Amino acid sequence: TPRFGMSESYRTMADCPELPAYVDVGPQSGQVLLFLHGFPDDATVWSNQVAHFSALGYRCVTCTLPHYNDAHHSGIQWRALGYSNDEICDMICGLVKRIDPSGRGVVLVGHDFGSVYSFFSLMKYPELFKAFVTFDVGYIRGLLSREVSAGAAWTAFRYFLIYQGLLIFIWLCSLIPMFGKVITCPCRLVLKPASIYSYWHLQMDYWARCFAHLSGISSVPDKFACRHEGSFTDFPGCPTLFIWGTKKPMMLHDKEWEHAMQKRAREDDGSRAHGLPCFHYPMKEQPAESNKLMQEFLLDVSSLQVGSPKSKRG
Question: What is the rounded CA–CA span in Å between residue 290 and residue 284?
Fold first, then answer.
């Protein structure tokens, strides 16, 4: 049984507009680090890391996802209602192929929903990536796995209700003239339809899967092109650095996956997992420690050759 499943209806990169790089600094011959932001941020959330690692000789590339900050996409006409998660994943991988035409392998760095898109990208195009760094969002079975237990479904349901449901509510409030601005601006949660579309496209599947499992239904239609199959303890296949904030009221990863990452670190496969005393933004709240952990990880995986589905030591 293959570990990664694709439906016959998945879109190809040719169907999606090109996602431009917002920042591309550092030696062109250096190891490429591609940084993906989450909600409600843009490419500038990585300014500290870009400055630090470009000075060390890495080629640092950032991009702003569609409609998160249209000022970063001058002249591009994005689809008014936004893009599905599969399409955004294909945009990201299209950018990877442009910045790494030789196929040396890109190190993917994600935070928040940028990490979710990274997981999807690693499922669909594992041959493009040499290693993975994820900040604060790890593997969530209710979100990423094709096979979801009742417990994972209930966890996903609570996650949607507390977090994603609130985002949708605030977005709806933002449509009310004047009143909406008063609510959303202080919260930095001013959403555009295209931003919420990606959430909704994913969360509609959340609801169906959660209710199906909680009600005892054995299976539900899965409209996503890519879902992880099989054991989650060794996913992603490439070496992975997971850095998360320990002060959050709710963790954004499965505890079993965290333990699996720590086991992989003990087995010296290049992976590492570190919790830092901060909230949702380790790279901003603990920049020095985050950069140190990431730098040590990058040095450790520098001798790797990209492979499919796993990177192999050269």
Answer: 8
